[in-house]
Amino acid sequence: MDATTKPLRIPPDMATYAEKHDIFELFQTLVRSLVVDKPADPIQYLIDMLKRENTDVPRVMLLGPPASGKRTIAKKLCEQIGTIHITASNILKDDSDLSRAALEYTEKNQEIPQDLWIKLIQQRLSKADCVRRGWVLEAIPKTREEALCLQEAGIAPEHVVMLQAPESVLIERSLGKRIDPVTGDVYHVAFMRPESAEVAQRLERPQSLISEDVIYRQLQGFHREAHALQRTYKNCLKIVDADQAHVDVFAQVLTFILSRHRSSAPYTPRILLLGPPGSGRSLQARFIAQKYGLVNICCGELLKAVAADESSMGELIKPFLESGRRVPDSMVLQILTERLSRLDCTTRGWVLHGFPQDLEQAEALQESKFSPNRVVFLEMTDGVAVEGLTLGAIDPVTGERYHSLHNQLQHRLRESEAEVQKKLQQYWRHVEALQAFYPQAVRVRADQDPHTVFECLESTLVDRLPKVLPDRA
């Protein structure tokens, strides 16, 4: 390379495009699948993978002791996210040479050999529906040995959920189990009764009644393997307390399934903070910038700095700032995009506040190819915002905002309640459109201690955005 030439700079919009479309994760998926499956024709194999509608489909294992609610959660989960529900029984119903061989063992009350069982699972998960839509394995694997065999066969889940509950609760549930003979759904006489009176009338006891001693031995068998299974899947495992309303259990499971694990992809934070006046955007932006080394960009301060530097653009916007009029969006966007395109912003990332203030500005920012990859709405009631601004004060040295009831400072803010109310009305006039424009934005309560707000906000910045549920309409 010629040392006298300028180094090649990657345009900022290339990184934006790669993050938006998960290009790095796509390459990881392709390489992982290639290494696991070892196809005879790798190029054609990759082409076929790229032709699929989605390579990032759910791959879930749902584990737990008897009567912990696995069947109910698995069925509801598959209905919600459109995946295929896989159980030991429906694997054996597959009309194939492998399933017929396995049935010969079950008819003789013999255990299916491990290698045959793994091949059966492989066969089912390789079918088009599972490849295209993903899968939920219910109560598979049962042992660490089985889990390791699945790993060797290339069957690796993205998420593993293990349900847990006290033994007394599980025993009571097992004894009170009822089954709908029409749908096969499982209910309980006390914990989870059907909403329909018609379904409630046709519920039946399981054909094989199990004694409390047998249930206890089954639970002990599960507990012997549970810890080893947790170690096997520790990097993608969530343990959920099943001793609560099943709707709450399902909500926790669904949230976890839709979450995405940390990525090793190159990531440049582009954070946008929105919120009403007095919600603490400037303070939170400073916290974020200091901790993560980002460039802190306040649009209002940026405009003042440009107006003071005697540049041609500064001379153009100075009359607007001096008269209190709104600077035209085209000028603001030109100044802002020039700042965001500088090397410090493109390499370190940025946190922006004070822009956009309405839908038109948000659309213009996105069209400029400087769209944020994290958006946070700081939420606060008007009463708290008015109190914070009208009873506030500014440190004359640092510019920090304080509350006059708690801090003694010389310079009070010159904002009347009427002025604050006017600003709040302006914010609320546009917030609904902005929230619709940024559907994956996170909302954080700002009427808390600033460090508590920062902790809540920070947790939304370090993790990947959750998956969006497919449209089931």
Number of strands: 15
Sketch the major β-sheet: 5 strands, parallel
Strand order of the largest sheet: 2-3-1-4-7
Contiguous uncertain segments of 5+ residues: 393-399, 402-413
End-to-end separation in angstroms reads 55 Å
Number of helices: 22
SSE-based structural type = alpha/beta
Task: Report Rg.
Answer: 29 Å
Mean pLDDT, rounded to whole units?
Answer: 83
Q: What share of residues are in beta strands?
A: 5-15%
Basic shape: elongated
Q: Which percent bin holds the helix content? A: 40-55%
Please outline what is shown here.
By secondary structure, this protein is an alpha/beta fold. It has helices at residues 12-20, 23-37, 42-51, 70-81, 88-92, 97-107, 114-125, 128-133, 144-152, 167-175, 197-202, 212-232, 246-258, 281-292, 299-308, 312-323, 329-340, 343-348, 359-367, 382-390, 417-437, 450-462; strands at residues 59-63, 84-86, 135-138, 159-164, 177-179, 186-188, 237-241, 270-274, 295-298, 350-353, 374-379, 392-394, 401-403, 411-412, 442-445.
Description:
With about 475 residues, this protein is an alpha/beta fold. It contains 22 helices and 15 strands. The strands form 4 sheets. It has a 5-stranded parallel β-sheet. Strands 9-10-8-11-15 form a 5-stranded parallel β-sheet. Helix 4 crosses helix 13 (about 245-260) and helix 15 packs across helix 16 (about 310-325). It is elongated. The two termini are about 55 Å apart. Residues about 395-400 and about 400-415 have low confidence and may be disordered.
